[in-house]
Write a structure and sequence with these properties.
The structure is a single chain. This protein is mainly α. It has a domain at 114-272 and 307-321: Orthogonal Bundle (MetI-like fold), CATH 1.10.3720.10. It is built from 13 helices and no strands. Helix 5 (102-138) runs parallel beside helix 8. The chain is globular, with a radius of gyration of 26 Å. This is Peptide/nickel transport system permease protein.
Amino acid sequence: MPDLTDSSRAPGATPAPQPSRWKVAWDSDIAYSFRRSPVAVIAAFVTLLLVLAAIFAPLVATTNPFDPSSLNLMNGFSRPGVPNEFTGETFFLGTDDQGRDVYSTILYGLRISLFVGVMAVMFAMVLGVTLGLIAGYVGGWIDSLIMRVADVQLTFPSILVALLIFGIARGIIPIEHRDQMAIWVLIVAIGLSDWVQFARVVRGATLVEKNKEYVQAARLIGRKPGAIMMRHILPNVLSPVLVIATISLALAIIAEATLSFLGVGAPPTQPSLGTLIRIGQDFLFSGEWWILFFPACTLLALALSVNLLGDWLRDALNPRLR
């Protein structure tokens, strides 16, 4: 005989409302870990602030610093917060040698740096995950070939690999199209220099997953290898990939800034934070410190906040630390 004292089982009782997805997400272990980590909260706030500033740069910037018609050379080398002695205009972060507002150049340069970093990481992630799945699942000489290429690439610093790829691509592209293709060449160069870590992690996880019962069952019912890799193995190896992607984003932004600082990155018509730092370095010892200082601080804040988020995500997804 059923226990009618339990209202949830009584006839005609209203079922308990199901929690919303937002409520489930808010009560999850990752959300709880995020709320308990002040460093992660501050890093997320700084990252979100810089990303929004880059996205809405045309709305929040005082001028378009890369529009020649909006420039006034008389505003050149204006000190931060001090009215210009010729025009009387005041710029919060000063101006550079061409009279461009440093605040506006940082916002527009931030857009280039973030775009290159995100696209390069996505390219490296897709390439590395694909090769890692193939190497781990297929094995044999294909596994040996992919891993030996990865081992050889690891013997060289990633920035040198990116420089080499960038130089080869620039030599292939016609001169009249080099500036237009420079950003995409930069993305490919950084992506090809960073795919190895994705491939090695995914290969190791695939070697473990392919021997489990659910993969054996998928083989027995006639699933093709490509479907098994994409629909069964891939979802179970994504956790470390997300951590690597977050940390790699900071490294990709720094790599882009390094290449641009060396003069082989973003073109002068589309300067990134690295290009702005290179321009400011030319005037550092003549007293115009703000041209270098503020873009460098922005790059430091962006890379540090993304790195701290990656560290928190790595700890949050590690079951041994729960």
